[in-house]
Amino acid sequence: MSMAEPDSRLEAWERWEQPALAILPYVMLTVAVAISLITRRGPWAPIDWTVIGLAAAAAGLLALFTARRAIRDRPPLLAVYFTALALVMFALVVTDPWFGFFTFTGYFYAYYLPNGKWRLLGVATIALITGTSQNGGLPHHGAGSVAVWAVIVLINMLVAGSLSWFGWVSAERSDRRGRLVTELSEANRKLTASLEENAGLHAQLLAQAREAGVLDERQRMAREIHDTLAQGLAGIITQLEAAGRAAAPPGPGTPAESGKPAGQWRHHFDSAIRLARESLSEARRSVQALQPEPLEMARLPDALAEVAERWSGRSGVDAQVTTTGNARPMRPEIEMALLRTAQEALANVAKHAHASRVGLTLSYMEDEVALDVRDDGVGFDPAPDRAGRDGVAADRELAVALARAPAARGAQPSGGFGLTAMRQRVEGLAGTLEIESEIGTGTAISASMPAIPAGAGA
Fold it and tell me: Structural domains in the chain?
């Protein structure tokens, strides 16, 4: 038999308990009246109107209790009602002891009395009436008869009092458990509502963070275009102007030997071509960072592997991608932030780290998804970034620190590590970015984002 079967039976009994206890007094009163009429006068004897009158009074009191629920909620009215019912029951038992079949139901009504001495007094009263019925009525034959009656009443009081006490204790425990279950249900309801509200707020914050991330991305691209493309184009113009002046023939009255040699013109021309190629490379890198093509065509682990493979082909540095945990689709902005962080970190490695190997680890955990990018390059001193200084000033100080590193003296860093933009992008989506590096031992960048499944909060 399964555990559900006893529970269902218990629930069924609880549903029928109150109706059964309400009907039982009427049934026992009818049975007692029938037995009394048959046994006292015979089936064809005249009707005993005393018995009928007392039984009618008892039935009226039972009906009044059933119809007027306010009696149960007002202790003074309940005390008056119980006294009247007990007097009618006592009169019935004195008239005919067979009514003891009915009077024991008085214990049900004693239960409604206030807990304590009043309830015990009610139980003792019903025990007295029931004991009298068991004695065959009131004692009539001297002290011995009175003693027997007293012993029977005492036994009824002890048994009824004990059973009533344990029943009330059990009922009190049941009520307490019911209140506890109700309180727990209410607490669970409030907790569910709070979780739903928090989910809505989280989705709202995520949307706001998305908007802020778009603005930060625009600002980052504006800074990057200014630092790379604009400066490269300005350098190209300067070199071409210098080449034009070097190639111009001497003016009238100017000695031919005063003209600039052709080698100098070639130097400016080669410098302009080199700057143009560098600017084109920066433009391609910036455009690639803006386009979400890898994520449109594949999941984040596959897109990350594709980005690393392309980067390794361009830079000639070995890049290994590892995925741990249960890979699952995340919200687009979460995946895009991690992919952009990987692209920015790889770009920094190519420009400044002089590394021979790069490892990318994508870790899916229960509450968050993390990306770790580690290289074995020259490293740098991350103190300026940790101090929370202005983004441009911090990157410049990092560039100075890298430039002073013995292993990177020929690197000519440009001052644009992008760490500030990387941090803004991650923290704008309730994530964290940690940078660990030391000159000569490489760099580790770790980005952690909340693991919000795709479609959540949409």
Answer: 10-189 (no CATH), 293-458 (3.30.565.10)
